[in-house]
Amino acid sequence: MDITKELLYGFIFLIILIISHVEGCGSFISLTTSSIGSLSSPNYPDPYPNNTRCIWIMEAPSMYQIDIDITFGGQSVNSICLDFIQVRDGSVISNLHVSTCSFLSSHRVRSSGRWLWILFQSDNGGAGAGLFANYTTVYAGSVINNITSPLTECKSYELSCTNKECVSASYLCDGFNDCGCDDADCDEGHCKGLDMTLGIMYVIGSVLGIVVFIGICMGAYIFERVFHWSHIKKTTEKKEDKRGRLEKCCSLK
Ligand SMILES: [Ca+2]
């Protein structure tokens, strides 16, 4: 087995793991009776970053619904969505209005009740046009007041994200943006305990990766040398032993 090649692949994987950056965005938007606003994927209209996950949760006042006008372009391969959006009535389990990675131009959605839940997510390669959406509140009257809120209090074992999402506390600092937001109170925001910039973290991670890689290579080299000299020593001893026995045999004659 070529140990050096295996170690090199492992090292490259380690570096990729270190430099993988989970982008975040998303927020909780509390609307008023006259709210008009917009939201977008990061960098819009430029390409969005890889591994981005944004969740916006919007809440309108009593007796108001939310209108949203969506322009979007994602990515798919063999009909499998890679970069996509979903729009629901306030939570991940609410009524689904839109789920697509295809191009949308001024696609209008009206919430059933007072809430909307908008997810934008990208994978680790390539980018489409991204998401841009205008939103506003519209008066609906008391007809929607019998629709109960999909927003719930987080359980004791969950983290309450700033965008009102609840995620398992075990998802804290695992490298994936489960909350769909990137504030300090989101699941990956807590990981900035040392107040280091991402660049410094990359440098430290890379240096540690290189040190580990060199250490493993040196260990493998020393092991290989020790094994090699041990083998030579055993071979030499066998030859000397054989020669000794031959000389003893001949001297007897
Ligand atoms: Ca996480």
TrEMBL record:
Pfam families: CUB. The chain crosses the membrane at residues 7-31, 200-223. CDD domains: CUB, LDLa. The keyword Transmembrane applies. It comes from Lottia gigantea. SMART domains: CUB. Residues 25-138 form the CUB domain. This is CUB domain-containing protein. Keywords: Disulfide bond, Membrane, Repeat, Transmembrane, Transmembrane helix.
